[in-house]
Amino acid sequence: MRAERDEARAELDELRTTKPSRHIPRRLLAGTMVVISCVAFLTGSIGIWASRSFLDTAVWVDHVGPLAEDPDVQEALGNRITTELMMVVDPQTLFEEALPERGQILAAPLSGAVEGFVGDQVDKFVASDAFANLWVGINREAHQAAVKVLRGQSEAVEAGDDAVTLNLVPVINQVLAEITSASPELFGRTINIPDVQIDEVPSSAIDKINDAFGTDLPDDFGQITIYDGGTLQEIQDAVALFDRIVWVSVVVFVLSTIGAFAASVDRRRTFFQLAIPAVLILVLLRRAAIRAQDQILQLVPSDGSVPAVEAVTDALLQGLFDGTRLVLWALVAALAVVWITGPGARATATRRRTSAAASAVSGAARERSSDPATVAWLTAHRDALMVAGVVVAVFLLVWSSLSWFGLLVLLALLAAYEIALNRMTAQRGEQPEESGSGIT
Fold first, then answer.
1. Maximum CA pair distance of the chain?
2. Residues 95 and 148 in one domain
3. Residue that is last in its domain, among 227, 259, 280
4. For the chain, how many structural domains are there in total?
């Protein structure tokens, strides 16, 4: 304590003899760099996540592909596809033409029965592997087309000229094939189902269905609008600006962070000034994403599609939550390490108490591990204890949603437990058995 007191007095005398103005410019420059770094961290974090989640086709497909197996999404898509299919089947007209005049009163209830049959076929197909493959394909095609349009790389669609859509016509065509196979007499004649590809232009696919079924379907049949043509130019301009801002933010963040440490008088304090705002920014981003999702769900009509929209937004926001969680853990761990290794009185006392506690625990563990009775008990129950460790790990894996980092920590703890148990019980086998003393 006397040595620390003398060191503190020496540092205080040095600070008193140092001219205050000597460090003022560096402090101002470091503070400015810290502010710039925090702002760039905010814009860069949002930009990188949005760019990966919404403008990267591979990431987009990874997020929305599993939605084909979500029951809420299947129900919403099934209802939409059934509604579109009834425009092709049109059982009301069929029954009115087939039934005599007195029997036409049955056209409406019979049409309801046909709609139920069509809905069952749709639900069966939407739950199949064939639909899952189609879903991935149409999303990949739609997203690639959307990104080309948004970045002005598409020759087929010009800004303000058209809209980008998710084309469900190939799915509807597959369901029509299933329906005609299950009930060929439903259309009153033999229908040759056309070949519709997932990358086919929607208008061409609709014309094929019209020719095959003799219908006059609307131009937006089987399509879900992603980007409206009326606002396409504004979105293109925003995406072009966004692409530039993302990389500028990353470069500015790196340079300003390096500049802050280079100009800093106290680099440990500068690290805290950078890391603590970063933690707050990430927490606010997570809360803002949750709030935005709630607002989106409030805008959805209460027609049963709310769970499906919630599943879609969960999938799109999952990357943000996973990424921010990983960075938050890293920052909190770094803050703890920097603080605990610092020269402050509290950090020094914490290190001293932690070292003393660790020494006490280690000594107690060594004492207990060398105790013959303890070692004998562990050896006798080793298999049960090893199985219990695995059971606890499996229980945590099943009943808790661990991140990749949490999974690694759990596996590391399990491995350490098993190794320690093996070492402690191995000592029992290495010790020679004491020969009993007796009188011969």
1. 120
2. yes
3. 227
4. 3
